[in-house]
Amino acid sequence: MSHFDLAILVIDENAVRAAIIEDGLREAGHSHVTVVHTVNGIARVIEATRPDVIIIDIENPNRDMMEHLFQLTRSVSRPIAMFVDRSDSASIEAAVEAGVSAYIVDGLKKERVKPILDMAVIRFNAFSRLQRELADAKSALEDRKVVERAKGILMKLRNLSEEEAYALMRQTAMNEKKKLVDIAQSVVTAAGLLM
Amino acid sequence: MTTIDHPDIAAPAVVSGPEQTHLRAGFIPLVDAAVLIAAAELGFAAREGLTLDLVRDVSWANIRDRLAFKQFDVAHMLSPMPIAAMLELGSNPSPTIAPFALGRGGNAITLSVRLFEAMQARAGLADDASALDCAKALATIIAGRKQSGMPPLTLGMTYPYSSHNYELRYWLAAGGIDPDRDVRLAVVPPPMTSDALSAGAIDGFCVGAPWNMIASEKGVGRIVATKQDIWASSPEKVLGMRPDWADRNRDSVSRLIVALAAAARWCDDPANHDALADILAQAAYVGAPAEIIRHVLAGQFALDAKGNRRAVPNYFVFHGAEANCPSSAQALWVYSQMVRWGQAAYSPQGTATAASAFRSDLYTAALGLSERPCEEDVADPFIDGRVFDPGALEAYIRGFGAPNQGASA
Fold it and tell me: Beta-carbon neighbour count of residue A20 at 10 Å?
């Protein structure tokens, strides 16, 4: 029996991340992969797919529902939460940090499951890095907009050149030990109140 | 100095070194996390030389796992969780003890307004009907639905090893309803209960505060029973920790118990309830309207949106009446319900194991009490008139009839 015969169920409300995980599993040669985005009707899915491994986002409050389900169903015979090997604290920490939790059918050899969890951890991390970068890029753009507006206000009100307006804000930020964007935001807010 | 040679546990750098004073505490956004939150926010922990880092979590399964995997040092837990852990029930059981109870009360059972109106129409239920009458009226509705081939009602609770599960089951059974055959029980995360009820995904639920009152004030639910109606002495949330961690940090555990007891006394004082409601209302904690939390703390219940109200004295008890003492009698009652509903088998060994989860000895020692103050009185009667005698556990369990085998049977 090939080690790729494991049935894997991925439950993730984030469709993009779920797709990334599914991709990784298929690349690794797993063909019995089921992905669902909601826990509604999950009992039937588990009944139908009889998963050996269930991967679920740790931030999903419905984990408690899964715990209840395992009491009611015999499809996942005696699922063990989360981790393959209790003594492997580095893996455990990495998984929790990444936000991965998993249930594994009791008796499954850890060598068969560990690569799956490791892959899920890597992909979860890659996904949050992407999201963070996107958020950073967005806020950088927002910051620039605020600074531009504040510059315009100062140029108009105090009759400054663009360079002088920028220098004034930078100097104020340094004096007050604040970020440039915070000073710019104050200028914009104040202008909104006064003008 | 002794060192323990155990290949599975990484040796601490300094075995006899200073104890941990910076503690990470997991909690779920509920009013009954108040004692932990007050201890961290109002300086009770600091006064004992401890720093409490509170970490909000989304599920009891996460709380259990993060405590087991040492991401939390202590945690706000459902009282049956340490008992289940000691009995190795559920997934990922890992030894857990409770040396402090975070208070009693806060739970209630809410049914959809539609269902309650049907109960009124069919059973002639008064607006101020008792919790037992409500359960009996529900039984007639369920019998009627069965006769006309309608699907069973679905009721929500929070976790398989929760006071809510056992209180809901107790209430149903008191009304003559078999919780495994006559209804479907489902787990619904507390913040989703109100929406699930209005969407018709569930017909009722048993959860902690403030979620019952949120459903009733929105006009989607009718509160039909409070925990006081079912059994006033039943344990609610506890502070859980790993026994090996507690052994290595005895002084810190004692200090924490002292800090929490002081915080609990503060939380109990009605004069502090406005301030407490404001703290709990913050998004980082419970994130519910301060006004509703104030009503919850005062036990002022809006039963429905029509203005029917009910005052429940001592709906929340954070400190008084030995509410902080984790008594083995309470642990044994939880065990009796685990056996009754087929989650565990009865044995003398199981009895001892269940009792070992609640450590009133640590509580008593930390507070310098000479006797175990809470190891006596659980004699107040239940909704069905039964009285729990922890000394005659097996007979008590047998009194419920043959254990249920769960819905899968």
Answer: 18
